Each structure stands twice: as structure tokens, then as C-alpha cells.
């Protein structure tokens, strides 16, 4: 487990141990390359090669383009996108040497269909989706026996997107983290290449064949364009 928040990190590790599992926790700033490299080196020394790498770190500011600062944009891409490159580069050699491994990229539905006030976040998640796709094709081309899974969920009730709303909760519910986690575990066990949650988000793919004005009108009808209007986010 890696996290910048050491108190939260210790709490999660404690929950895993209390449930009968094993956990090792390392403080790491995913926005900084040196911190990632140090945590990766320590992980490899103390635990050996990694079997499954889950890139789950993510941050969001939820601001309009002219409100978000350059520093906030750079931090969003550092955590949501560049960290994926750095962790995979750290652990992929060990996976290749062992002849097995699985890389899980936690992206977002907003990387498939962008949302107002999420220009930086949506772009960073779209990049994560493309990163996973390129890896999958590269591994197949080069005969690398490492699996990949990209996960694109709608809003999850973790506090990160506190205040968001959905117009049609039966079609686009604010998802429970436990349900999403269970679905990710199942995807890893089945070697699924892509998980999109909920199922209705898949409609974004055929809808993109429509004229742009029609697509935008449907995004508005389903409440996507207003979903961030009351966003407050997690208090830092």
C-alpha cells in the first residue's frame, strides 16, 4: 500500500490485517518521481517482484479551466497519469522476468465522456485509458505475458466527489466503493481487459457516432453536464 496520508495508510493496513490478511504500508507522494522510485525500490527489496499492480491514486480539483492553476493541473497529471508510467516502469521488469503479472489502471468514465469542471481530470483519465490500451497492444505484440485491466467507473461515494449529483440514479448511480472493489477483483481473476461501471456508461461509445450537437444534447439530458454543479470534494 502506498499513500501520502500516513494516518490513512496505517488505518487501511490495519483493516486488512484485522480481516486476516497481510499488509505493508509505505508513505509515498505519487506526484513526485523520486518518491515513487524510493517506494518502489523498498517494495522490491522487502517483498520481491509484484504480482498485481493496481494504480488507484487519483486527485480532483473540480474547477473551471480559468479557475484551476497551472500547479493544480500539473499535480493532477502527475498523480493521475504520470504515476502510472513510473510505477509500471518500476515493476514491469520483475513481472517479465517471472513470466506473469497483472497491471490494473483505475481510470474514469469521465475519460470516456468528459464533464464540465473536469477538464484536467477528464484529460488525465483519458490519457490513463490510452496508456492502458497501448500497454495491452505492446505486450501482445512483444509476447510479454503480463495482463492489463482498465477500470472506468462513474462517480464513487468515497468523498473524493462529494456533492456531485446524478439525474437518473437507476441508470447512473453514485457507486459504492465496496461494489466497485469487488468488481475489480473479479476482473483480475478473469483477466478482463476492460471494466466500465455502471453498464450504462458503455452507451457513450455508440453515441459518439452521432453528430456532436446530438451527443452534447444527450449529455445534457442525462444530467452529465450539470453533475459537478454542486461539487465540494473531499476536505483536505
Can you describe this structure?
The longest helix is centred in the middle third of the chain and has 29 residues, at 70-98. Helix 5 (177-190) links the parallel strand 5 (147-153) and strand 6. The protein has one domain: Rossmann fold (3-Layer(aba) Sandwich). It starts with a strand and ends in a 15-residue tail after the last helix. The strands form 2 sheets. The protein has a 4-stranded parallel β-sheet, with helices on both faces. A two-stranded parallel ribbon has the order 1-2. The chain has helices spanning 6-18, 33-47, 70-98, 119-142, 177-190, 204-207, 212-221, and strands at 2-3, 26-27, 52-55, 102-106, 147-153, 194-197. With 236 residues, it is of the alpha/beta class. The relative contact order is 0.11. Helix 2 packs parallel to helix 3 (70-98) and helix 3 runs parallel beside helix 4. The model has no long low-confidence stretch (mean pLDDT 97). It has 7 helices and 6 strands.
Features:
Rossmann fold; 6 strands; globular; two-stranded parallel sheet; four-stranded parallel β-sheet; alpha/beta
Biggest sheet character? 4 strands, parallel
Number of helices: 7
Instruction: Please tell me how large the radius of gyration is.
Output: 18 Å
User: What is the CATH C-level name?
Assistant: Alpha Beta
Amino acid at each position: 500500500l502506498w499513500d501520502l496520508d500516513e494516518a490513512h495508510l496505517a488505518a487501511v493496513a490495519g483493516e486488512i490485517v484485522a480481516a486476516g490478511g497481510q499488509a505493508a504500508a509505505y508513505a509515498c507522494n505519487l506526484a513526485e518521481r523520486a518518491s515513487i522510485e524510493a517506494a518502489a525500490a523498498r517494495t522490491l527489496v522487502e517483498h520481491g517482484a509484484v504480482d498485481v499492480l493496481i494504480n488507484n491514486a487519483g486527485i480532483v480539483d473540480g474547477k473551471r479551466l480559468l479557475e484551476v492553476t497551472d500547479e493544480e493541473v500539473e499535480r493532477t497529471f502527475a498523480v493521475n497519469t504520470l504515476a502510472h508510467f513510473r510505477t509500471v516502469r518500476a515493476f514491469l521488469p520483475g513481472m517479465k522476468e517471472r513470466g506473469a503479472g497483472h497491471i490494473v489502471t483505475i481510470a474514469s468514465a469521465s475519460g470516456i465522456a468528459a464533464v464540465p469542471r473536469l477538464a484536467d481530470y477528464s484529460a488525465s483519465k483519458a490519457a490513463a485509458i490510452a496508456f492502458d490500451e497501448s500497454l495491452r497492444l505492446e505486450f501482445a505484440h512483444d509476447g510479454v505475458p503480463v495482463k492489463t485491466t482498465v477500470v472506468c467507473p462513474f462517480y464513487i461515494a468515497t468523498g473524493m466527489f462529494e456533492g456531485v449529483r446524478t439525474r437518473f440514479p437507476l441508470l447512473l448511480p453514485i457507486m459504492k466503493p465496496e461494489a466497485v472493489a469487488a468488481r475489480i477483483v473479479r476482473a483480475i481473476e478473469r483477466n478482463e481487459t476492460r471494466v466500465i461501471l455502471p453498464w450504462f456508461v458503455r452507451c457513450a461509445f455508440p453515441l459518439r457516432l452521432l453528430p456532436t450537437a446530438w451527443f452534447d444534447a444527450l449529455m445534457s439530458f442525462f444530467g452529465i453536464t450539470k453533475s459537478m454543479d454542486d461539487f465540494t470534494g473531499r476536505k483536505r
